[in-house]
Amino acid sequence: MKIRLDAVSKTFDTTRAVNGVSLEVASGELVALLGPSGSGKTTLLRMVAGLAFPDAGRILFGDVDATDIPIRDRRVGFVFQHYALFPHMRVADNIAFGMRAARDKRPEAEIVRRAEELLALMQLDGLGGRFPAQLSGGQRQRVALARALAVDPRVLLLDEPFGALDANVRRELRRWLREVHERLGITTLFVTHDQEEALDLADRVVILDRGRIEQVGAPREVCRDPASAFVMTFLGDTHRLPATVTGGVALVAGRARQPAAGVADGPATAFVRPGDLAWRGAGAADGGEGVPARIVRVLDRPGTRRLVVRTDDGDELEIDAGPDAEVAAGDVGTVGIVRARIFRL
Amino acid sequence: MALDPTVRIGDGALVRRLLIGAVVAVSVLVVVMPIAVVVVRAFSAGVGAYLANLAHPDTLHAIGLTVVTALVAVPVNTAFGIAAAWAITKFTFPGRKLLLVVIELPFSISPIVAGVALLFVYGLQGLLGPFLRDHDIAIMFALPGIILASMFVTAPFVARELIPLMQSQGTDLEEAATSLGASGLRTFLTVTLPGVRWALLYGIVLCNARVMGEFGAVSVVSGNIRGQTNTLPLHIELLYQDYNAVGAFAAASVLTLIALFTLIAKVALEGRGAGRVPRAAKTAPAAAPAGEPAA
């Protein structure tokens, strides 16, 4: 089911939680709503679900205006961050809840069979007789998903689905949600504040800030071609360096030249990621453009050596060097800027 | 040096003993001894006299009246409490905080004031007095007045138990149920109510105990007509003023018995997690998995 948001706004008291958001989600797509807390992502999801209603704008499911359809009749599957499983019901009854509550209730035998099918799909075979309190967090969230899928929703909505789980379980469930999505092909929208989760999982990522969409794009687009300084900084570690733009070229930190197409002439800010910087020792052959600096500390990480350097201008930068880089604190050299994004703030 | 976690600073043996001793002494003097006396005095003339006192028509009538009052007041206040807790915790509306205060008001008002207030509204000289007299409706000095006074005094009991619990549980479960297609009634019966069942029962038990034991408010509006509008607590006072100590104590022992059952129910329910806000809304009551039938 295709979803379309048309200039949707929502105000709580005096804060504009969502401010004129328009978005199209194709049928069968898996889309992440990514943003810091207070960016309006959960409010947006709740409006799509019918748990909240927009002050302005429309929400369309396919070609039907669903803005005023109450959640009960909207046929969406909603998965809550804290699972919201019914604690006094066994797992199988939790999953069967929606089927039993349906207006056109199917026969009980079919409900039981479908619940078992879903348990198997969620790799929870044999746990139907347990109570939610007897399950681990990851299992509970899978029950919550099975329960949401049991009513054959047209759209699946997940609100920070892995937010309450620890890192390992989270990664495993992520992979597994992707598999379930590929198998069922149901249009899915999920909210997260974890950029890695959004990038790993989604076909497209919607980046929100203060109630507005900053950028919509495939993970590669938003990573490689961030539309704003906010997107750039939100997606990963960044350094800011002063720059001056003349005729579409920026001079970063007074030394390195970077393309800055579309940025007006004048002072600007260069955003650089640790991986976009290169360390050249004092005796390196390819002199090139660079900012003179001294290594303050070396942080060893599994895949890289991260160099903390202080430039002669007094800026502290972090650089990701290869695991074999032979460097030590105190070394003097230059920092080359391989890639930078220039924005006028 | 490892600190003994059971000994806090200032916990000298002397202080500890004095404190425990004082608490035990006060409990015995103020609570245990008087109650023991009730039981002892009730049986002082023998079991036969005790039973004869209980079997006195006026006493039996008082017990009956008290039960009838409870049978009306407790369910009505339970329904009211559930509705109030639901409204306050699941919706936001202007005046929500004010409603909370109004519900709690009977707790802070002396019952005698409640009784007098009812008199001012429903009494012969009261606001609705002429209307009631013209239509031949007796509220004061009759059963309706007794029930009204009991309801006034116990109005907060159920709501007070439910509100903090339902607040801590939030609305996730109800939202989940509705998103799965459940109607409001179904959501309430199969999701909300089971989640608060022990707290609800706890509130009902406390409400019932108070209805049966209420003296002040009821004494103003009942008129104290022996065998007609005397509830058990009022009857005890009358017997006592008649110098019928054994009778008074026998009747009092019935109230004490009710209190005892209330206490047992209360302790049992507290074991189920009622009477306090649970650690986390998402954890099921500890006893639930033990083999209760699924709803």
Question: What can you tell me about this protein's structure?
Answer:
- The complex is a heterodimer of chains A (345) and B (295).
- By secondary structure, chain A is of the alpha+beta class.
- Chain A has helices spanning 41-49, 71-74, 91-101, 108-121, 137-149, 167-184, 195-201, 219-224, 229-235; strands at residues 3-12, 15-25, 30-34, 56-61, 64-65, 76-79, 155-159, 187-192, 204-209, 212-217, 239-246, 249-252, 256-259, 266-272, 277-281, 291-300, 305-311, 316-321, 332-337, 341-343.
- Chain A has two domains: 3-233, P-loop containing nucleotide triphosphate hydrolases (Rossmann fold, 3-Layer(aba) Sandwich); 237-343, Nucleic acid-binding proteins (OB fold (Dihydrolipoamide Acetyltransferase, E2P)), CATH 2.40.50.
- A six-stranded mixed β-sheet of chain A has the order 6-7-8-3-9-10, sandwiched between helices.
- Chain B is built from 14 helices and no strands.
- In chain B, helix 3 packs antiparallel against helix 11.
- Helices cover 72% and strands 0% of the residues of chain B.
- With 295 residues, chain B is mainly α.
- Chain B starts with 12 loop residues before the first helix and ends in a 24-residue tail after the last helix.
- The chains are: A alpha+beta (345), B mainly alpha (295).
- At the A-B interface, helix 2, strand 6 and helix 3 of A face helix 9 and helix 10 of B.
